[in-house]
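COURSE: Structural Biology Practicum
ASSIGNMENT: Worksheet 4, Part C
STUDENT ID: 0417
INSTRUCTIONS: Below are two proteins. For each, the amino acid sequence is given first, followed by its structure token string. Answer the questions at the end about the second protein only.

PROTEIN I
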Amino acid sequence: MASSQDELVFVPLGGLGEIGMNAALYGFGPEDRRQWVLVDCGMGFASEEHMPGVDLMFPDLRFLEDERRNLLGILITHAHEDHIGALAELWPRLRVPVYATRFAIGLLETRRLSEPGAPKVDLREVAAGQRLTLGPFEVEYVPVAHSIPESNALAIRTPLGLVLHTGDWKLDDTPYLGDTTSETVFSRLGDEGVLALVCDSTNVVRDGRSPSESEVAKRLAELVADAPHRVAVTTFASNVARLRAVAESARACGREVVVVGRAMDRVVQVASECGYLDDLPEFRRPEVYGYLPRDKVVALLTGSQGEPRAALARIASNEHPEIALSPGDKVIFSSRVIPGNERGVGQIMNDLVRRGIDVITDRTDLVHVSGHPRQDELAAMYRWTRPRIAVPAHGEDVHLAEHAAFAKAQGVPIVVKARNGTVVRFAPGKPEIVDDVPTGRLYKDGDILIGAGDRAIPERRRWAFAGVVSVAIAIDKRGEIAGDPVVDAVGLPSVTRQGESILERIADTVGQTLDGLSRSKRRDPETVENAVERAVRAAVQQAWGKKPTCHVLIVEV
């Protein structure tokens, strides 16, 4: 039973107002001693343009780190990277049990074994339909259709009401592999009484209903059968239904499947252990590819998002050591482009087309379907569950705003527009935002996690835009210049529009600036540094139109 001081709250720490980094916190109890469960702990992909040198982003869990003694566990809805990808980095800061299905645990363990130094996370297996009790929370894993096996919504029961956290889902009556999203099960939850529905917003801007995964499988089989030469298919490695569809398409016309890419290897291994690839011919290694006839091979490739180090990018630029494509071969992009990756994917497509390779995408053919619900599917979920409160989640601001309006149109009495860091009180009393907690992003920079306020990233952006000038000057105790200053520049053009050397212009500016300082001023290193820096930046701007960063080193001799 709930006491008069108990509250049920929802605190998103990532995934609202952005794509990726999903981390949703649920709390129960008095304000000063709540107990918590965290749903998912995902990563996001950084844009090289805005985050040079950074590949991955993680939610900043500093609030939860302070509350760690009250954290009962981490609940994983499914094994996509935007839901589990931050665990290896952030779990050591929390050190609580992580509950996940067999497939998700398999992927987490396979990755750990392939990465030296990765922590051994306390993983505890749950099955679809299972209920577990964590303090005041009773959590039921509810199977849903999605683009990865063993996806689940979570029915989180508390003394103050039932919250339904959908995770990622869609409606698909013929999913080719895996579960459906059951009207019977969700209607039962609606009959029980859903206090709040925290729901996927990814495809709310699209009307209608998503096609079935089985329709994609049928079209892939036709494309493979009609291809006169090699076929390469790139897709999200985690989409096991798609991998199986490609393998069955290949078998139907006597082709062998070659798997290329570490992420694909990991998924194939775990999917095979879980029985999702039973009754298929054995997948072949990349070293076999070159010995197979052109009309007897299908390659499954990583790199559908334009990742420069993935298999597809290296093949497109003809730099892969084992896999090559020729004019007349076919590449099928059986995926959608995640926002922010358009440039990289476009470059790969152009490279392929330039070499005479046929490119097929979901813009012209049914080679991909989304794993997220469109408007008709969302409407069905609202009809089945009849929530008192709707909280749009899992999407950028435009998706959340559209979903809020959509939920109101479905007759939901209260719609709460939450964002990362907002504390939403579901019960008791009127549902509303009652507080904010600190949130943000962490960036994986090489082997180091840095905060959003670290100076490294903005400095790299500045240097990428206008370069760096370094000047070293030796000055003795009397203020005399000892030898010629040493000047170097990185990221600047070699010559001005008039053909003058930029380095010579900088060296002349340094000399003139030093000559213009009195001997007493030259004895003050800070005065010399400031004068030279200002003069160099001004001179380069006059010659080039940009002001570089300027580092001045004074050596006292």
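PROTEIN II
(use this one for the questions)
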Amino acid sequence: MCNWAVVALSHASHRMKGSLRMSLSGVLRAIVASLAGLWLTTGHVLAAGQNLVINGDFARAGDPPPGWVEEREAASKGTLRVSNGVLELFPNAANTPSAKPLGIGQAIDASAMAGKTMTISARIGLRAPATGAVVGLHALRADGSEIGMVHLRRAQSGDGLETETGALVIPPNEAPKLLILFAVAEGLGGAAQFGSITVTSESVSAPRAVATPTIATGYAAKVTVDATAHGRAIPRDLYGVNVEWWRNANGLWDERGDRLDPGVVQLTKALRPSLIRFPGGFLGDAYAWREATGPRKDRPAMVANPGSGEKGKPNFGTDELVQFAGAIDANLLLSANLGTGTAKMAADWVRYMKNLRQAHPDGPRVQWWEMGNELYHKGDASGGSLTPEAYADKLQTFAREMRAVDPSIRIGAIGMENYPTFPFNSYRDWDEIVLKRAGSDIDFLAVHNAYAPVGPDDRANPLDVYRALWAAPLMIADNLRTVAEQIRRYAPSDRVEHIRIAVTEWAPLFQVVPSSAWIDHSKTLGSALYVADVLRVFIQNDRVDTATFFKLNEPSFLGLIGVRSGAWAPNASYYAFQLYTEHFGTTLLSSRVEGPTYDSVQAGIVPAMKRVPLLESVASLSADGSRLYVILINKSANQPAEIALGIGGFDAVSGDAQLLTGASPDSNTGTELPRVPGIQWARQVNVDSSARQFDHGAPSEVTFTSVPLPRVGKAFSYRLPPHSVVSLELRLKR
């Protein structure tokens, strides 16, 4: 589980009370609110110009510098100095993570900024032991709600200042009031350095339509498939899922019946995942696997969340995991506790699994061993965060002892290439250092780069958010190419082709706080399109061999399987996942799409993107060559796709369409958020405020049907409804 989701998930899926830990984004939002309040009380309005920042070059010194303001409470957390055009912030021991870190800010009148792109630039430096230097720009409405934001951050110390740039688009239909600019220091010592801070504006070139148009006809597209152009054998391990140990594996274990929950088992068998990652997210770096073995009645309570101190009875441990994997015919990816555990603990777990395998040769196999979770994040909830150097050295020790027990195991390091809008990895050069120091000891690099949209504004145009979600796979594909290039550049030469990529957590994820109007949108048809398209990205990247969706089941807002009327039930993404496990082949084929594109605006961590294809496709061939599959994804919210298909090298005589569709992008199967004392879930956004499809979720609102194709051959047409995904299965004459 991603660390920034920990607290909200904890509240949502278990009866807990207590205060939320404030994430980085929460801290910065509080800074924005504080600075906006200062502006309202001081009347600090700035004149517009080519550079909208007053004294951004720090030519005039002062404490604070002229044009800037400092929160009174933050002033006790360090000192500042301006010299030679550089602002230096020197945090002290009082500068612990809070809503008011050491820093300065100013407010810019944004009343004329609708339809503008705000470009921000700053020279940023860092001296250890400071942990971060951040320049942020937030756009606010008159009521203080947020339109959007951009952050420039340096987390690595070094000589000199480096120029960072970013952009913030303010849509034409918005009514901005303020731009809040700030520069803050993170850490308890050292210095954060800033210079040449500029904010400029330019008009958005092509205003977008903000209302859903009524269009009677569809758009034309062409899909060409070459059945003779074979790509790679599609790894079955791309169809994996995460299972967590705590809270009875989120209900997978029926504690009252002392058994696997039959409902989850039945639905999982039909889903056919190939791989199970365990024990789940940051939980793995606080997991004492040995304590979760033996008779369940004798197992002691274990710490689940070191941050909150939450403990749980480990009723679902290694033996129960093996039982479940055997029941659904899946293999295992285990996450070793590298954060707070020892190499001996990990080696003993390898030995335990090896002995189980020898005793039951037909049972599930441990395919992969992942060394830790998100230990590159300084706020890691397990408390086991490491520098890349310390991580690489510790991994080598673990690998040596684990392979001494079983030389056949495949070991993976963790890594992450940050997105510009979301620098979650605290170390910019993490991948480089780990690959250089430990590349000879690993078989794969595990990344968590496929969560989206993560944090859209509650007031955002709902269709804009979904269009951004559907654009995100392009961002993910580009990130994976960067990671592959890092492997080629930094791994030892004899390991470059050997080291694979595993995406061990990924999912549609909108929000994690109960007060968000987006928190439950991970279950919608629009999210299912994202699932289908991300799987396409994984399949078409030859370096990606493994992926595990986060997560299989949960009685809350994440999971392919949720709860409806007290019983386990699939959501829309379940069916998108099943399209690949049940209605797709084993050999990748060449396919090409010709059709229109769209431009998306920023939503959450997804930046504004250009030329996003409205239609995506991926094709495959069955193992015996008798069936050809084409999965098509229509990302238009309101137009059907009129698709002309050309199939070369395959003489189909019949076929079926497995179609996943519904009335609206926010249509859903009606799975429910749990009733938790002390937690009030926000009313959720509806794409159409009059139809309110989200509110009317029910099994009939999302349809997954099989329909015979009336005509197939070398050339035929298919009409794919808006916001829908289909698998066309074409068959040779028997």
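ANSWER KEY EXCERPT:
Q1: The chain is about 20% helix and 30% strand.
Q2: The mean pLDDT is 89.
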